[in-house]
């Protein structure tokens, strides 16, 4: 397995490259993915995650990952997965996942941790862990925010996959396109997102994460503090003037 990294302007593309095994991840690949995220340069504005081979994003963790492991080893593997998801959620860059096909288990958790998702309507998503005798954990905790509690319970308790088209009403996927258009559309969107004001994007992403973990009043108070703090930077005033001028 290799993790391919391509930097193009202000966009870093991170590709999971194991097409012969549906881009399934080995335990050793998880820290590599995290390093690809945290190792992006300060100029990087957007992270795009893809699979290779044109058929799958990733089948998740390789089936052999948890065979014969001890409690300590299992805790270490899942801690690495949790660290990767946290790195994606807390990265200063916007993250986009391109789902040409299957996105299962830990790979689906990565898609949930990311900000935006582009997918083919027949791409399969799911968290099959209960079928293996283990619960879905880590960023599976975000699933109900995207698809609602009832559908989240169905997916988590049955372990069944669903086609993206079945979840169209939920808002899980931001853009649904033809299979051959998934990666090009994600790349084009990434270029557009990279042009947005970096400071505003960084603060907005931090606020979104904050809002998931605090009361409404705390979210409002934090938002007010962030809004005021933004005007310490000349970048904010310049962006306001530039946008106002562009509107005539």
TrEMBL record:
Any Pfam family hit: ECH_1
GO MF term (any one): isomerase activity
Keywords from the named record: Isomerase
This protein's record includes keyword Endoplasmic reticulum: no
Keyword Isomerase: yes
GO biological process: fatty acid beta-oxidation
Matching InterPro entries: ClpP/crotonase-like_dom_sf, Enoyl-CoA_hydra/iso
Classification via PANTHER family: ENOYL-COA HYDRATASE, MITOCHONDRIAL, ENOYL-COA HYDRATASE-RELATED
Annotated protein name in UniProt: Enoyl-CoA hydratase/isomerase family protein
Organism: Saccharopolyspora terrae
């Amino acid at each position: 397995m290799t993790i391919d990294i391509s930097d193009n302007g202000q966009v870093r593309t991170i590709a999971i490259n194991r097409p012969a095994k549906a881009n399934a991840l080995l335990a050793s690949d998880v820290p590599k993915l995290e390093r690809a995220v945290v190792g992006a340069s300060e100029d990087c504005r957007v992270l795009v995650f893809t699979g290779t081979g044109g058929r799958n994003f990733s089948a998740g963790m390789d089936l052999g990952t948890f065979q014969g492991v001890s409690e300590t080893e299992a805790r270490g593997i899942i801690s690495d997965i949790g660290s990767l998801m946290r790195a994606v959620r807390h990265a200063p860059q916007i993250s986009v996942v391109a789902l040409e096909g299957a996105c299962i288990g830990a790979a689906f958790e990565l898609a949930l941790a990311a900000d935006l998702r582009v997918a083919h309507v027949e791409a399969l998503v799911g968290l099959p862990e209960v079928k293996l005798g283990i619960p879905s954990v880590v960023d599976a905790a975000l699933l109900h925010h995207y698809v609602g509690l009832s559908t989240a319970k169905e997916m988590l308790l049955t372990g069944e996959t669903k086609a993206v088209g079945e979840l169209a009403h939920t808002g899980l996927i931001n853009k649904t396109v033809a299979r051959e258009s998934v990666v090009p559309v994600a790349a084009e969107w990434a270029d557009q997102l990279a042009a947005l004001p970096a400071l505003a994007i960084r603060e907005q992403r931090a606020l979104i994460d904050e809002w998931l973990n605090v009361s409404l009043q705390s979210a409002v108070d934090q938002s007010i503090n962030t809004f005021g703090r933004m005007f310490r930077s000349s970048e904010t005033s310049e962006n306001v003037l530039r946008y106002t001028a562009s509107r005539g």
